Task: structure prediction
Amino acid sequence: MKKFFPILLLAFVSLFIFSCDNNDDVVGDGDTYSQMRDVTGNFTSANSYAFTQGINIASTDVVLVYRNLGAAWQLIPKMEYLPNVTGMPTGREFQYNFVFDTQNVQIRIDDENFNLATGLTSAEANQYLNNQRFRIVLVPASGSKNSNVNYEDYNSVIKYYNLDDSKVINTVVTK
Result:
């Protein structure tokens, strides 16, 4: 009986050690916490229709960028097709896009088929170029592997990653 008790005790302790393993955490990967940051800026010819926001993430993590549309957030990249206006080129289009690395996110306008400096009315420039607000959402890549979260739907993303959008850091780009 004296030899049986230590073996039974070891088996009992081992049961608790393995049951406390937390490798089933699908939302976090242990080194990245989901976070958000707002950046507001103007797209101009002086900044080559792009501005940059500093970040710090692992190279395996995911960056999502949403453009503010007032009451909603729209995932980019997003192609914009402008209506025909008298005195402006026809078939005007451009794309909000972004690129990122572990240190920066650059939000920019790509694939424009007209001169943005002269091919927009003042109302269109205000709507598409001036004071544009974007929300950068950093999420761990491991959380996206097995999830059914709809990344197009901003509200689904913040719900899935338990993000509080009332505590977002705001940055204004002045360049």
Residues 107 and 154 are 18 Å apart (CA to CA). The two ends are 79 Å apart (CA to CA). The first strand starts at residue 35 and ends at 41.
